[in-house]
Every structure is written in C-alpha cells, then in structure tokens.
Design a protein that fits this description.
The chain is an alpha+beta fold. It folds into two domains: about 5-175, no CATH class; about 195-335, no CATH class. The protein contains nine helices and seven strands, in the order αααααααββββαβββα. A four-stranded antiparallel sheet has the order 1-2-3-4. β1 (about 200-205) and β2 (about 210-220) form a beta hairpin. The longest helix has about 35 residues, at about 155-190.
Length: about 325
C-alpha cells in the first residue's frame, strides 16, 4: 500500500495497543513500525533502476527482517518509556504484529514482496487490491485524523481505531471475494474463447476494485483486456501483444535486461519505438487501457537509454486522465 495508508494503519494499531497508557505516543510508535519496511527507498540513492526494482519490497519485506527488527523496536520503546507497566513481551508482540501486517498487506498488490529473502527470491503477490485504493485507505485516514484531535482519555478514541482497522479489514475481504469471482470467470472465458495460455493474472485497474485488468498468454505473446465484476456477458475483448523476444538478442547479456525479466516474472513484451528498444512489464497495466485498448503500458523501460528510466513503475499513469477518461472508466465499471 502507499506510505500514507501505512502510517494511518500503524497509528490506529498503536492506539489500540497502548493509547490509554502512552497517549498519542503510541500512535507514533505504530506509525513508525508500520513504515519501517519501506526504508528500502534509500537504495535508490546508489542502485541503478533495474537493481532498485528488485531491492524494493525485497529483504525489508521479508519474514527475516521482521524477526530481526522487532526486538530493536521493542527494546527502544521499553527503555524510552520507563517507568511503565508494559512488559517487554507485549512490546515484542505489538511491533512484530504491526511490521508483519505491513509486509502481509503489501502482498495483496501486484508489485510482489520478498517474504523469503534472502533464502529465496520468489515474490509473493495476490493481485487483489490496487496499491493506492481510496476505498481502503479513507477509513484509517479518517480515524487517524480523529485520534489526533481527540484527547487521551476520551472514550470515543476506541470507536475511531476500531473503525479505521475494522472497515479496512472488511473491504480487504470484499476485495478477495471479487478476486475469487474474477479468476473463476476469466478461466471460463479463456476456455470459451479458445485462448491458449501458460500463465495469466488478474489485478484491479487503478483506484478501485470493480474493474479488473486481465493478462493471459505464453512465451509468444499475451492477450490483454478488462473485465468488470458487473459484466453480464461471459466474454472479454482482448488485444494481443506479441512478446518479440527476438528483439532482445543484441542486449540479452546485459545485466539490466536479465534483472527486468526476473522482475517481470515473464509477463513482458519488447517493442521498437522509432530507434529505441523498449521493455514493457505488463503487470502494471496500461495508461488508459479501458478506453484505448492499444495504449502503451505504464511500465516501459528504455533499454537504449538507461538514464531515462528514473521512474518506470508508474510512468505516465495519470498523464492522459481527464473527465472523458474517468467517465469511460465509470461506464466500463457498470458492465457490458
């Protein structure tokens, strides 16, 4: 999830754990612990882009990191707040839980997290919720604001942290229900439309959980389309994108190419834009694909111009958004 959501969730967890004992300082500890896995952003200062893609949500989102950093936070908090009546074991449970929840909910996005680093480079990704979904984030955000305003002893504080955590949990469950239905429908549709594939995925389109982005194919290429949970027809209008692996032959030995292939988990295509060779990671969707089916992919990496790849994961994500695009998205969400 985005950083602000993590901060708000952590603050609500801190309030639930020790708000009555520590006051608003408990919210601060929760926000810090919930944010600590994202310390990997500092790798951008010395790593090249392709290496940084693998470092992000890597070791700092692993179970080992959670195990190592939890006692550090617990010992700091226990010493900082002496005298108090919170046992060290309770501090450990709190910080371990908050940090674990961060790496757990990040796995519901399409980027993937390295739970098993450094022992395995496998990335875990459930593709169930968009990385910045306001319908998930608004509740802890509202609760966080209310908790900042209310005084320490106010009984309503319990209501707000419960609202912030409880409604977000219910929405996440709802997203998983949508995910299960979408995967079931897509498999039936792929069989009905006689589309052969060795790998596929579904993931929400930006900022909501009703319109889903679908990719299915094999080493030759991929079929790309969109489906709404409200679609009545069991069909998807796919666009086909050849993988064009042959274009990589002159640069296949380059380290950044191998890292991009690993990062994409084989969901990639290669294109030639004028004189520039471009690597597309299909997992992050198209800029406005529900309106323009042949639109470029959000993640495109210029293999011939590595210095132009400072931001690749969400490159141009909202550059073409206007009222017409938003209206087209809302109409598409309503179904066929």
């Amino acid at each position: 999830m985005d950083s602000l959501t993590h901060i708000a969730l952590g603050a609500c967890m801190g309030e639930a754990f020790a708000g009555r004992t520590l006051g608003k300082k408990a919210m601060l500890w929760g926000a810090l612990a919930q944010s600590i896995p994202d310390i990997d952003f500092i790798t951008a200062f010395w790593m090249d882009t392709s290496s940084g893609l693998l470092a992000h949500r890597g070791f700092t989102h692993s179970f080992l990191f959670c195990f190592l950093i939890t006692p550090v936070f617990a010992l700091l908090a226990e010493r900082w707040h002496r005298p108090h009546n919170v046992r060290l074991g309770h501090w450990m449970g709190f910080f371990g839980g908050v940090i674990f929840i961060h790496i757990f909910i990040d796995a519901f996005n399409n980027y993937g997290v390295g739970w098993f680093e450094p022992f395995s480079h496998q990335r875990i990704s459930f593709n169930a919720i968009y990385v910045a979904d306001p319908f998930f984030s608004v509740w802890p955000g509202i609760a966080f604001a209310a908790l900042l305003i209310l005084r320490k002893k106010k009984p309503k504080r319990r209501f707000w942290w419960r609202l912030g955590l409880g409604v977000s949990l219910l929405y996440l469950v709802y997203c998983l229900i949508n995910k299960g239905k979408m995967d079931s429908d897509v498999k039936d549709i792929l069989q009905k439309q006689q589309i052969s594939y060795s790998r596929y995925f579904t993931t929400p389109a930006p900022l909501q959980n009703w319109l889903w982005y679908v990719v299915a194919g094999n080493d030759s290429g991929y079929h790309v389309g969109f489906r709404s949970v409200f679609d009545s027809k069991k069909e998807i209008s796919f666009e086909y994108f050849p993988r064009n692996d042959s274009l990589l032959r002159p640069v296949n030995h380059h380290e950044d190419v191998q890292q991009l292939i690993r990062f994409s988990r084989q969901f990639y295509t290669v294109e030639k834009w004028n004189d520039t060779l471009v690597f597309n990671d299909l997992r992050f969707g198209q800029v406005i694909g529900w309106k323009e089916p042949r639109e470029q992919f959000v993640f495109h990496y210029y293999l011939d111009h590595p210095d132009d790849n400072k931001l690749v994961v969400q490159r141009g994500r909202f550059a073409k958004w206007d009222w017409a695009v938003m209206k087209a998205m809302m109409n598409r969400i309503k179904g066929n």
